[in-house]
Amino acid sequence: MYTNLKFYIDGSWTNPTGETVIDVINPADASVAGRVSIGTAANVDKAVTAARKAFTTYSSTSVEERLALLDRIIAAYQQRTGDLALAISEEMGAPTWLAEQIQVPIGLAHFQIARAALEKFDFGHSQGNNEIVREPIGVVAMISPWNWPMNQVTCKVAPALATGCTMVLKPSEISPFSATILAEILDEAKVPAGVFNLVHGDGKSVGNALTSHPDVDMVSFTGSTAAGIQVAKNAAETVKRVQQELGGKSPNIILRSADIGAAVGGGVAQIMLNSGQSCNAPSRMLVPAERMAEAIAIARAAAEEWTVGRPESNAKMGPVASEAQWNKIQRLIQAGIDEGAKLVTGGPGRPDGLENGFYVRPTIFADVTNDMTIAREEIFGPVLTMIGYDDEEEAIRIANDTIYGLAAYVQGEPAEAQAVAQKLRAGQVLLNNVQLDLAAPFGGYKQSGNGREWGAEAFGDFLETKAIVGFR
Ligand code: NAD
Q: Taking every annotated instance into account, which residue ranges of this chain make up the domain Aldehyde dehydrogenase (predicted)?
C-alpha cells in the first residue's frame, strides 16, 4: 500500500535520507504491506529545529485561531476516515468493523474533545496582586505504540495543538501508515509549517535522538514500561518533562452483589476487544470463590462467541499485530499451563484454518493465583485470568498487588462498587462495564506512568505555570 513513506518536516514532505528501510508486515497473512525508512539523528534535528522556529509564533496564537485550526482538522479528518480504517487494518490487523467503528472515531473524538476544552480553558487569572499565567511548554517529542494507533497519536497531538505547543511525532514503526495519513490531514487543514512534524523510525534511532535532543522540552511517550524507563533516563539529562502512559495488568472485581452474567460477559468482551491489545484491558478477573464454577461457564460461552478471522471477514477478532507479539503471547499461555492454571478455553497455537497470520485463540485460565506469571506480566493478547477471592478485603488486596496502576474495574451494586473504587490504586476505575469516556483523565499510578492524557486534564501536562508576582 505505502512503499516509500515520506517524513513531514517544516510543512513539506521530504524524502527520507535514512539508509535503513524496513518492511511493514500485514499481520493478517505475514505479507509485506509497505516499507518505511528509519530516520536518523540528522532528520530529527531538522524536525526539532523546525518545531522550535514555529514555536515562536504558534505559542502566541489566540484561542480563537487555535479553535479555527481544530475545526479545520476535524473537517479534514472526516474526509479521510475510510483511508484511516483501511490503513489501521493493514498495519496492525484490526477487523474492519473495529477500525471503522472504534479505532478511527476515537481519533476524531480527541480533536472534538480538545476543541470543547479549549473554549473553556483558564490560561490565566489574577490571585491577589499576582497574575498566574499558563503558557505552552514548547517543543514536544511524541512517541506512540501500534495497538490503538490513531487514539494514541491524536490524544497527544490534539491537546498540544490546543495549548500552543509545537511537536515532532515518531509513531510506532509497526503502524506508520495511519500516522502518515494524519500528517496529510494536518497538512490539508493548514497547520502552520513546523508546528507538526513527522519522522518515522524505531526506538534505537529516532526515539533515542528525540528523547536526548537538547531542544526538546517535553516527551510524551506511550509504550512499554521498559522503553518508558529508557526514555525517562534520556530525558533526565536535560530535565525534560516526561509524560508516560505505560503498561497495565488491570483487575476487574466482580462483587457478590453483581449481576454475574452481565459482569463476567462484559469482562470477557473487554479483554477480547482488539485481540486483547489494550493497555487498560481488564486482564485479571476477581471472582467470589463460591461463584467461580458459574463464572467459568459464563466466561467460556462468552469467549467462544469471539470468532477469529481475517480483518475483512465478519470475524469479531483479527490477528495480533506482530510475530514478536504472537510469540510473547504463546510463551505466556505456556507459562500458565506449566504453572498449573486451569485452561478453560483456547490455549497455544493458531485457530484452525488460520495458519499464516498472527492469530491467537481466545484463551481463558481459571484457578489462577496472583503470583503466577500470567497474573503478573502484561500479556497484551486475548488471554483472561480468573482469580478467586474470599472476602472484599482480599479482592482489594489482590487488585492492588501489581506493579501497575493504569485502570481497574468494579462490578456490583453501585454504592458498594463506588466504595471499592476509592480503595484501588489506579488512574481510572470503571464501574459496571460503563463505556470508556474520552473526556475523563487517563493515566497510570505506579509503573503505569506519569501525567494524564485525554480531555481538559491533558492540557496541564503541555503547559508551564508562570506567576507574575506584584502584577498589580
Ligand atoms: P514499545 O515500548 O516497544 O514501543 C512503543 C514506542 O516506543 C514505539 O514507537 C517504539 O519505537 C518506541 N521505543 C521503543 N524503545 C524506545 C526507546 N528506547 N526510546 C524511545 N522510543 C522507544 O511498546 P509497543 O510494543 O509498541 O506497545 C505495547 C506497550 O505499550 C504495552 O506495554 C502497552 O501496555 C503499552 N501501552 C500503554 C498505553 C497507555 O496509555 N498506558 C497505551 C497503549 C500501549
A: 13-468
